[in-house]
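Ticket #442: bound-state structure for zinc ion.
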Amino acid sequence: MDNNLLEKVVSLCKRRGFIFPGSEIYGGLRGTWDYGPLGTELKFNLKQSWWEYMVQDRENVFGMNASIMMNPKVWEASGHVASFTDPLVECKTCHERFRADKAEDIKEHEQTHAKKKEKVEWTEPKQFNILVEAKLGVVEGEKTTVFLRGEITQGVHVNFKNVLDSMRPKIPFGIAQIGKAFRNEITPRNFIFRSREFEQMEMQTYVKPNEKEAMGMFNEMKDLRMKWYLDLGIKKSKLRFREHAPDERAHYAQAAWDIEYETPWGWDEAEGIHHRGDWDLSRHSEFSGQDLSYFDSETNERFIPWVIETSGGVDRALLFFLLNAYYEEKDRLILKLHPKLAPYKAAVFPLLANKPQLIEKARRILKDLKRTGLNVAWDDRGNIGKRYYSQDEIGTPYCITVDFQTLEDDTVTVRDRDTAKQERLPIGELSKFIQKVLLLDN
Ligand SMILES: [Zn+2]
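RESOLUTION: The complex was predicted; output attached.
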C-alpha cells in the first residue's frame, strides 16, 4: 500500500480543480470542502450513475428530494435528539476535544504533546450531540431552533404517506434520495471521508413485515450495491462485506452489513445495508399521530411495512473512486476513472493552434459531440504530448486530434487514455464509439 496515496490524491484534486479546502482564502473552515470545476462534474456523474442504477433502471422505485430543515419533532421521533451522540474527552492542556472511542486520534494527540515534553491529562468522557443546530424565524427571541438534518433517511419516511397516496405503489417498493446531511463531527479527517457537511445517497425499500421477505430484499440489496462499485471499476480486491458486531448495531437494526473499501488508512466504510424493521414508520406514526400503515389489496391485510435501507456517502465513494483510479507510470500520471464518471468523456485538439482550417474543423467536431450529450473538453495549448498528459491526469478517456489528413478524408486520431494507443476513426463514428463505453451492464 502506498502510504502517500492519500496526499497525492489530495494534491492532484487541488492542482487540477477537483476539490479545494472550504473557505480557503479566510483560513478555511475545518471539516468542509469545496468542489471545483472538475470535482463538480465528477460528483454529478457519480450521483447520476447511482440514480440511473438504483431508481430509473428498476421498477417500483421512486425518487424524493426533501428539505434539509425539518420540523424538530422529526428528530425526536427518529431518536436523534436523545441518542445521536459521541462520547467526548477533552485534553486539559489545550482543551481540544476528541472522541473517546477513537484510540488512534487520542494517541496522536498525546504524541504531539510528548514531543514538547508535555504530559496529557484527559477529562472523563461526556456525551455530545452531533446534530447541527440552526435558528429559524425573523423575530429575535421568537426564533425556533431547528436541526440541519443529520441523515437524509427521515425525509423519506416522513413522506411515506405522500408517496403512497400519489404514486399508489405496490409493495415491495423503494424510495430513493440523494442530498446533503450535517454532523458536528468532532474529528473530521481523511480528506472528504469524514466531514461536517456531506452528501448521502440512500434507498429505503418497504417490504411486507416478515423475515423471509425482509431478508430476501436485504440480500438482493447487498449484492446490488456491491455490484455498483464493481461495475464502475473499483477493484474487487479493494472491496469487502463486513457484518456489524451486535454492539455496533443500532438497537432497532435486525441486520446490518457494511461495504468496506481498503483505504490507505485501512478498511473503512463505504456504505451500510440495514434491516430497520418497522422502527421508522412506527415511531413517526406515534409522534405525528398519522396512520402510516399500508393496505395490501391482494391479501386484504393492513400493516406497517419493514424497511431495508442502503445508505452510502457520495463524497466518500468519490474519494474511493479517485484512490482506485490513481496510477503513476514512468512519465505520466493517469486517473483511470470509469468513462461514466470521468468529468470529460473526450478532449478535442487541433494539431496546430495556428492553422484556421484545423481549428474550424475541430470546433465543429466539438460542437457535434456536445450536441449528442457528451461533455467534451477543448485544448489547443502547447504540444500534443503535453495535452495528452494533461487529460490523462483528469481521467479523460479519449483524446481526439484533428490533423491535415482529417481535412482530406474526415478521419481523426483517437488516443486511448489507459493504453496510450491511437487509432484512426471516421468523424461520423465518434459519438457512438464514446457512448458505447458509458453503458453499465446491469
Ligand atoms: Zn492537548
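RESOLUTION NOTES: The pocket of zinc ion is lined by residues 91, 93-94, 96, 109, 113, 120 (CB under 6 Å).
TICKET STATUS: resolved
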